[in-house]
């Protein structure tokens, strides 16, 4: 029987470690379809990137992932597979499924090893939600930091792809922080029935990225 490591530090510090760029989930290799949007001239500067990021967080995977995270946090192990199956079904392209699957597997593998947890390979938001439940970390903080980490990773990708200057990229991320909090706080009160997406351009971009001639990112 696996005995989880008892947490004695501030839970925010644990979440900061889990969701920082140093945690080995390979987030830096995924752009969520942004690379194709840059290549086709849809995203060209800080303003157009900010618009795209806001839409992705509000109407796409950002909000949906937090709903999935909260569902995984609030359920027992018997329903976890059903939530994970739904997360996989929501992926609009093979690369977006890879993004969720590979990051989730890497997160589960590392979190299980360092905290002595019984964690199976799950999609990324489901794995984080379940691990936070096992470690008794606060759901609101988990959701907020997960959302901000998602936005930060896409900002890092935009910094390299557009390209954006580091200062203007950080200005976009700073402007997005209140939105991350707002979406996360509302999403944890919603259910799987509330999941919806209207980011069709991003979904199509992720499909087109699979056959793009020159690529730096895996999605």
Automatic annotation (TrEMBL):
The record's listing under Pfam families reads:
UreF
Q: Name one GO cellular component term.
A: cytoplasm
> Cellular location of this protein?
Cytoplasm
Segments spanning the bilayer are: none
| Alphabetically ordered keywords of this record | Chaperone, Cytoplasm, Nickel insertion
**Gene Ontology terms for molecular function:** nickel cation binding
The answer on whether this UniProt entry bears the keyword Chloroplast reads no
Against PANTHER family, the record matches this protein to:
UREASE ACCESSORY PROTEIN F
Assembly state and interactors? UreD, UreF and UreG form a complex that acts as a GTP-hydrolysis-dependent molecular chaperone, activating the urease apoprotein by helping to assemble the nickel containing metallocenter of UreC. The UreE protein probably delivers the nickel.
Which protein are we looking at?
Urease accessory protein UreF
Q: Which organism does this sequence originate in?
A: Shimia haliotis
């Amino acid at each position: 029987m696996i005995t989880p490591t008892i947490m004695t530090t501030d839970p925010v510090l644990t979440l900061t470690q889990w969701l920082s760029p140093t945690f080995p989930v390979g987030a830096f290799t995924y752009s969520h379809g942004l690379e194709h949007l840059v290549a086709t001239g849809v995203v060209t500067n800080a303003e157009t990137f900010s618009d795209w990021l806001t839409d992705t967080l509000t109407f796409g995977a950002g909000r949906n992932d937090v709903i999935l995270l909260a569902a995984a946090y609030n359920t027992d192990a018997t329903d976890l597979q059903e939530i994970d199956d739904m997360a996989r079904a929501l992926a609009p392209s093979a690369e977006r499924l890879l993004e969720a699957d590979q990051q989730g597997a890497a997160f589960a593998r590392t979190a299980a090893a360092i905290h002595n947890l019984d964690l199976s390979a799950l999609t990324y938001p489901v794995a984080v939600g379940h691990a936070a439940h096992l470690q008794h970390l606060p759901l609101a903080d988990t959701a907020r930091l997960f959302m901000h980490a998602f936005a930060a990773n896409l900002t890092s990708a935009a910094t390299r792809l557009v390209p954006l200057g580091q200062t203007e990229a950080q200005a976009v991320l700073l402007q997005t922080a209140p939105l991350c909090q707002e979406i996360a706080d509302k999403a944890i009160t919603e259910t799987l029935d509330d999941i919806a997406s209207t980011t069709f351009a991003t979904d199509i971009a992720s499909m087109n990225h699979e056959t793009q001639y020159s690529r730096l990112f895996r999605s």
